[in-house]
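Lab notebook, bench 4. Continuing the backlog of folding jobs that were queued last week. Each job is logged with the same field layout so the records can be merged later without manual cleanup. Today's entry covers Meiotic recombination protein-like protein dmc1, a 267-residue chain. Filled in by technician R.K.

JOB TYPE: sequence-to-structure
TARGET: Meiotic recombination protein-like protein dmc1
LENGTH: 267
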Amino acid sequence: RKRVMKISTGSKQFDTILGGGFQTMSISEVFGEFRCGKTQLAHTMSVIAQLPKDLGGAEGKVAYIGMSLIIDQMDAMLTANADTEGTFRPERIAQIAERFGVDPETAQDNITYARAVNSEHQMELLNKVAEYFVGNEYRLLIIDSIMALFRVDYTGRGELNERQQKLNQFLSKLTHVAEALTLLCLVEFNVAVLMTNQVQSDPGASALFAGADGRKPVGGHILAHASATRILLRKGRGEERVAKIQDSPDMPEKEATYIITNGGIND
Ligand code: GTP
Ligand code: MG
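JOB STATUS: finished
OUTPUT FIELD FOLLOWS
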């Protein structure tokens, strides 16, 4: 039988506002501006998910979907705040593994990494991970960052009706992503889904992706329906970062501070 597990973030304060960590059989979305630690959180949790339960882990494997962005595509995004890396860094996994006394190679081997090159491919990969999950003890699925490729593929620069068409295609695709994610974690597998997302604060960027106040996740409410827990990350004082629960089925809207170290997310 499946039992809900909680996977630690690496920060005790962050874990506390989550009620222990990110839950399996649930979708969570962390969103925030560039450099606030979304990718670092994803890397940290990819190691912690493998640890024993008493260390905040779920004793499982990890699937990690990263995005491949090239410079031309970055231009198309019309924003200087674009996710510049969005990709998986094995050497960071090794560093974080050392913090937890885990063999770096073992930690890397337990993470199945795939890089999506466009939004279509991202969808294919999502369907593929479902196959990987069958008969394997996967406990965490990372998608970093879920909207980056959609922004590239569907940012319209053309005529109004052309843009409207792109918008419709985009929304339909997004609905499929949301459905695939919901199926993955709610119905079939004991997996925590953690997706990262950016905020759109550049007024020159496509209205399609803009949040009203720059503190909204890219992609808007369709994706929001798929995520049970949504957390806003932002920069705090000095090196500090702040996590704030925005939507949760069972936790109040509290804040926690954390820092990013060589060993990943910490207090
Ligand atoms: P975008 O993907 O650009 O939207 O940002 P993000 O939210 O994913 O930020 P990310 O998780 O990449 O955090 C970047 C920050 O992490 C940097 O500004 C550094 O402060 C910190 N960081 C990255 N790598 C290391 C490292 O090896 N050691 C330490 N101590 N900090 C690091
Ligand atoms: Mg990132």
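OBSERVATION: Residues 71-85, 202-213 have pLDDT under 50 and may be disordered.
SIGNED: R.K.
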